[in-house]
Amino acid sequence: MAVTERAGPVGRRGPRRRRDPERSRKAILDAAEEAFAQHGYGGASLAAIAEAAAVSTALPAYFFDSKAKLYAAVVERLFRERNERLDGLGRAAVAEVDGTEEGLRRGLRVLIGGYLDFLLSRPNFVQLMTRDALALAGKGRAQAPRHSTAYEDGVRGFLAALSPPPGPAVDSSQLLVSIVAMCFFPLEHDATMVAGMGLRAWTPAFIGQRTEHVVDLLVRVLKPDQHPRR
Hints:
It is built from eleven helices and two strands. The chain is mainly alpha-helical.
């Protein structure tokens, strides 16, 4: 609900000024997400976040109490968006499976392409997760899931839908790790390894090529009888 305040001293009413708490909260979250992604937790300050959000310097602490809680809110919002975007990919991929290699490829394109499309659209997510991993290195292990359990369930459901099944050698947890590694790594290292190869990961063209490459690799794993080793 918008809050109305009167500007000016008592007896001299000026124009009414309306505050929208939800809009202010979103502006702070947007500014904080950008600041944490670009400068890390230590390099971002509540004052700078307030300035970028065009709100008073006291407002971030008013809404979120502390920088730690603001950071947690930023990460929670990113995870929620990721889960919403990835939820359903597994079911959509299963719908493409028809027992043929082409059906397998179509399903994998949904599963892999959908994940890569999300990453391409949310560079701050990639930056923050990379910084998060560095911050945890040597300090312990995450106590709560940092991956998308919805996407994990989608990968499991996709494997279960294949006929004939890929066999016990293909573990769904290992497959999930492989998919994330093959999709996340190039974007995470766009400025290092990928740049050194003369490629640009943050482009639709690269994402399209990456999708087809990962699909080709996974088809060979999931249908080894049709792609014997040479």
